[in-house]
Amino acid sequence: MADGVGQDDRISLIQSDIWIGFPRAEQVLDRLQSLIEAPRQTRMPGLLVHGASGIGKTMIARNLSRRYAPEYDPMAGVTHTPLLLLQAPPAPDERRFYLHILAAVGAPATAIAVRSQNVASLEVRVIALLRDLGLRMIMIDEVHNLLAGTHREQRRFLNVLRYLSNELEVSLVCFGVSEAVDAIRGDVQLARRLDEHHLPNWRDDSEFSNMIQTLIAAMPLEKKSNLKVKSLRQILALTGGITSRVFSLVKDLAIDAIRSGEECITDDAVANWSPLWSRYAPVQRRLEQAGV
Questions:
Q1: What residues does each domain of the chain span?
Q2: Tens digits of per-residue pLDDT, 109-145?
C-alpha cells in the first residue's frame, strides 16, 4: 500500500477530480485572479477563454471558484460571494438564465411566485441579490450554448451579460468552444472588453512532457513510472491532445497498475492500452453468443 492507503482507497482517489497546476492553466488563473481583484470601474474588463471541448476550461473555472468560495460574515450576518460560476442555459433564454442565477445563490427560484414573474421583475430581483453579495466576477461556462438560439436570441442574451457586468461593476468571464468566439464578437461592445485567450490542444513538446510527468507523479502508485518519449507520443496520439482524454487515459493506466500489482505505469502498458469499453466488448459478445 502507498502511504498506508488501501488499494480501493487509492483507486477512489484516482477516480476523483485531480487538479494539476500546469503552466498554461496557472497562466489563465493568474489573469482571472487579477480581474477579480481589480478595482471597480464603469466598464470592467473581462476574459473569453476558448478551446476544444475537454481542453480544461471547466477545470480552470471550478478551481478559481473554489479559491473564492462564499464566506459567511457572522458579524454582519451576510454571506460574501466574490465569484459566481454559472453554466449557460441550453439555449439563450433570459428568463431561464435569471432563474439559474437565483438557484445558484440559494434564492427560492422554484417557488410559484418566482416562476410566474416576468423577465423584468426577475431582472430587478437578480440585480438586488447579486449586489448584496459583494460580487466581483461572473463566470459563464459552456457559453457556446448560445449558438442553439437564433441570431436575435443570441444578441439578447449577450445584452443581458453586458448589462449585468455594467450594472454590478463586475468582471465577466466566459468559457466556451472556439465556435462561440464569433457569436461573442457579434456584440461589439462586449467583445471590446473581453480579452481572448485560446487554449490549444497539446502538442509534442516539453510542455506536454512536463504535464504528463506531473500528472503521473500525482497518481498514488508505489513505484516511479519512467516512460520513454515514444510512450508520451503514443499518449498524445491516443488522446488527440485533449486534456480530459489525457487525464482519463493516465488514470486508467494507474488503476490497472494498482490492480495488476505493477504499481507503476510502464511503456508496455501504454503500448497495449485500449479503452475500457472495448476491453469488455469481446467478452460481452461471447456471453451473448452463449445465450448468457
A1: 7-14+218-289, 23-199
A2: 455 455 667 888 899 989 998 998 889 999 999 999 9
Pairing of strands 78-80, 71-73: antiparallel
Q: Are 242 and 201 in contact (CB under 8 A)?
A: yes
Distances (CA, A) of 36 to 17, 69, 123: 24, 13, 23
Compute the half-sphere exposure of residue 42: CA atoms within 13 Å on the CB side of its CA.
0
Residue 167: all three cell numbers together: 450594472
Residue 22 forms beta bridges with which residues? Answer: none
Helix 243-260 vs helix 229-239: crossing angle, to nearest 10: 120
Identity at 228, one-letter amino acid code: K
Backbone torsions φ then ψ of 13, nearest 5 degrees: -65, -40
What stretch of H or E contains 87?
Answer: strand 83-87
Q: Domain 23-199 carries which CATH code?
A: 3.40.50.300
C-alpha–C-alpha distance, residues 228 and 213, integer Å: 11
Q: Using N-to-C axis directions, what is the helix angle for 206-217 and 229-239, rounded to 10°?
A: 90
Q: Using CA atoms, how far apart are residues 241 and 54, in angstroms rounded to an integer?
A: 10
Residue 251 has pLDDT above 70, yes or no: yes
Rounded CA-CA distance 39/57 in Å is 25
Higher pLDDT: 4 or 104? It is: 104
Q: Measured between alpha carbons, how far is residue 82 from residues 31, 67, 257 in Å? A: 16, 10, 42
Q: For residues 37 and 4, which has the higher predicted lDDT (pLDDT)? A: 37
Gap between the Cα atoms of 292 and 259, Å rounded: 27
